[in-house]
Amino acid sequence: PIWLPTWNSANVVPHLEYVMTPTSESTLLRHPRRTPKPAAGSYIYSRYIPSLDEHFNLVALDYENPEHLGLFNTWQNDPRVAAGWMETGTLDEHRTYLKNIHDDPHQFAVLGYFNDTPFAYFELYWAKEDKMGQHYACLDFDRGRHSLVGNDKFRGQYRVMAWWPSVMHYEFLDDHRTENVVGEPRLSSENVLKYEMIFGLHQDKWMDLPHKRSNLVKISRERFFQICPFNQSKPRVAGTTFGFEPKL
Q: Which domains does the chain possess?
């Protein structure tokens, strides 16, 4: 099934309504009411990757689907993934984790596929309501993402060059009011920062989040579509001839 927005397609701009969300016991955050999430299990994005002769697809994760839950549980209990995510647990614990994301209007969980093979997990979120949104002048529709590649067969630079910009592409397409896509790679994650720079993001500043010290990285809508960072044959800083060889 293909997911489509629930609002009337004749409305170019959905009705904008603001709500208040508590961020602590004494603080409320004003932000737009978020549009409904894609239906669980539906395809939300697909792009043909010429260099691989494969399609990269995004599917809204269904925490009630045993296959989806099993993938998440297996990947999170992989020591390689656990070193970064620190979310090891049982099936029941991971079902609760994913249900909490499902019930949270500011984020949703997605599985990444090459053709019909699942290989990655993503959390896509609205930055305004996220912890990082309190660390910079966040616009109402800025988006962020967390990523993990769980299937070892799909690791490697040539795969990253396909899926990394595609996830950002989806976030810009999903809502035309999104002016920035942001990220928060750990300060020590040099390879992640290199990939962010390859695809056009710049390091804005450092942030001290509750669980890590991070780089705030950002790319504007104008820059993303200007450089169009798809199908790159060599890893270079976007828009330049400066190259480096990250490994992931």
A: 49-227 (3.40.630.30)
